[in-house]
Specification:
Radius of gyration: 20 Å
CATH topology of the largest domain: TIM Barrel
Bound molecules: zinc ion
Number of helices: 10
Number of strands: 18
Strand content: 15-25%
Length: about 375
């Protein structure tokens, strides 16, 4: 796939255009760019400047992955810029990092990595691979201040364990109380930072909802009652199907799994898919996040697979695509990307077909356009 920088003055002829927002598909128009910003998406005359001819193709907003770990796997010494390139090659221009122990990452690439720098977790509980431990609230709040001063673009908190492959429905204990989470959200707000929280198990998800966190990561094994509350809340939900699906879809990578473990994972995945379908019907704000870097979850292409998994679980093509474009941009507070509209920057994916009708066209993009 070609990655092309768009000059500040340009026009892009297209056969079809999906703006990332509604079900409307524009046909045979021109997208005009003035001073580096989209000026019009359905024009009929080109502005002065460079003219791209994609009159055979479909334009849509470039993709955003709401949950990755760019530094993972640690044992793989692949340069981060190469991993960033894998994202661009899949049509992904930005991703939100869920933490690591490497400190602030330097990624020499037009790929935008939104960093938490390191996650905050409770000492003695799950999270040592993701960031920094604290023993009490005051340490957690100090860490929020420190991460903000280091340039974190969001705060990541680990509020539960991970789900057990041996025992269905087990996720480890919820670690931060609702009031602790609320204090962290309030302190992050002082720095104008959103808070993403790893939460599996019903208790951890309920505490997140009580605290009003921005995004709930995973959410495995929440009850249907909690799902209803999530759907009625302002919090986004990032169900991360990919790391669970990989365990079953790529058995060659997981040869230590016993039949019992495969059975637990299968049942867990089925319940999670049911929650996603019901959450979508209830109006939950679902985002596509892959947890890329986790075992079996590749950087870049996994976002396309996650979009397919969300669609297969029950999201409409429109909702599955919004989950990685306009809705993701809102949650990640990236106001210049995620949709094609006047005032946005030209982060544009060029596809062979209309993704609302043929979502699999995402697997073979023709070009990624990014601002010069
Ligand atoms: Zn993660």
């Amino acid at each position: 796939m070609q990655i092309i920088e768009v000059p500040d003055q340009a026009s892009i002829k297209y056969g079809q255009l999906w703006d990332g927002l509604s079900e409307i598909i524009y046909s045979n128009g021109i997208l005009n760019i003035t001073n580096g910003f989209i000026k019009a998406i359905n024009a009929h005359t080109s502005k002065e400047g460079f003219v791209f001819d994609y009159s055979h193709a479909t334009l849509m907003p470039a993709l955003i992955d709401s949950h990755i770990h760019l530094a993972f796997p640690y044992e793989d010494t692949q340069p981060l810029a190469q991993r960033a390139q894998q994202y661009l090659q899949a049509g992904v221009v930005a991703a939100r990092d869920g933490g690591n122990t490497c400190g602030k990452l330097s990624v020499n690439s037009p790929f935008l990595l939104l960093q938490s720098i390191g996650a905050i977790y409770k000492k003695g509980h799950y999270g040592s691979a993701l960031g920094y431990s604290v023993t009490n609230l005051s340490q957690a709040l100090q860490l929020v201040d420190k991460l903000a001063s280091l340039g974190a673009q969001h705060i990541k908190v680990v509020a539960s364990g991970i789900f057990s492959f041996k025992s269905y429905g087990k996720t480890g204990t919820a670690t931060f109380s609702a009031s602790e989470l609320r204090s962290i959200v309030d302190r992050a707000a002082v720095h104008k930072l959103p808070v993403m929280v790893h939460a599996s198990g019903d208790e951890a998800v309920r505490r997140c909802l009580e605290a009003g966190v921005d995004t709930i990561e995973h959410g495995y094994f929440m009850t249907r009652e909690t799902l209803k509350r999530l759907a009625a809340s302002d919090s986004y939900w990032i169900p991360t199907l990919s790391p669970v699906n990989a365990q079953l879809a790529k058995p060659e990578l997981f040869d230590a799994l016993t039949p019992t473990m495969r059975d637990v994972i299968t049942r867990s995945l089925i319940y999670h898919q049911e929650l996603i379908a019901e959450g979508f019907a209830l109006g939950a704000k679902i985002l596509a996040g892959t947890d890329a870097g986790a075992p079996g979850v590749l950087h870049g292409i996994s976002l396309i697979e996650e979009i397919m998994l969300l669609h297969n679980a029950g999201l409409s093509p429109l909702a599955a695509l919004q989950a990685a474009t306009s809705r993701a941009a809102q949650a990640c507070r990236q106001t210049l990307m995620g949709s094609l509209a006047p005032g946005k920057k030209p982060y544009i994916l060029v596809l062979k077909d209309n993704p609302l009708k043929n979502i699999k066209t995402l697997f073979s993009p023709e070009a990624l356009l990014i601002p010069a």
